[in-house]
């Protein structure tokens, strides 16, 4: 698989926005620029694994990718918070 430079920039942009948005929704302080990108990209991976199995389709385009990734990042942050706090949200 070949990803162009523009494709990498889009992935990083979507990851940054999704990670930041998830951090604000879950009421965290965020993880910094790199941490937010990582959380957003991992959230997109989580969303791409879970949502198709549940039959959830959000459409196409950059905005839907950000929403999709942010939802996955929120799920990821909630799981991390559950593990870190011993089961308390």
From TrEMBL:
Recorded superkingdom: Bacteria
InterPro entries: Transgly_assoc (IPR007341)
Topology in membrane: Multi-pass membrane protein
Cell location: Cell membrane
Sorted UniProt keywords: Cell membrane, Membrane, Transmembrane, Transmembrane helix
UniProt keyword Disulfide bond, yes or no: no
Membrane-spanning parts: 6-26, 33-54, 66-83
Membrane keyword on record: yes
Pfam families named among the record's database cross-references: Transgly_assoc
Family (UniProt): Belongs to the UPF0410 family.
PANTHER family xrefs: UPF0410 PROTEIN YMGE
Name of the protein in question: GlsB/YeaQ/YmgE family stress response membrane protein
Organism: Bradyrhizobium aeschynomenes
């Amino acid at each position: 698989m070949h990803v162009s430079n523009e494709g990498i920039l889009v992935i990083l942009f979507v990851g940054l926005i999704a990670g930041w948005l998830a951090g604000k929704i879950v009421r965290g302080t965020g993880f910094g620029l790199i941490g937010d990108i990582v959380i957003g990209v991992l959230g997109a991976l989580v969303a791409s694994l879970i949502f198709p199995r549940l039959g959830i389709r959000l459409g196409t385009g950059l905005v839907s990718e950000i929403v999709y990734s942010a939802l996955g990042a929120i799920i990821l942050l909630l799981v991390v918070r559950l593990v870190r706090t011993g089961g308390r949200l």
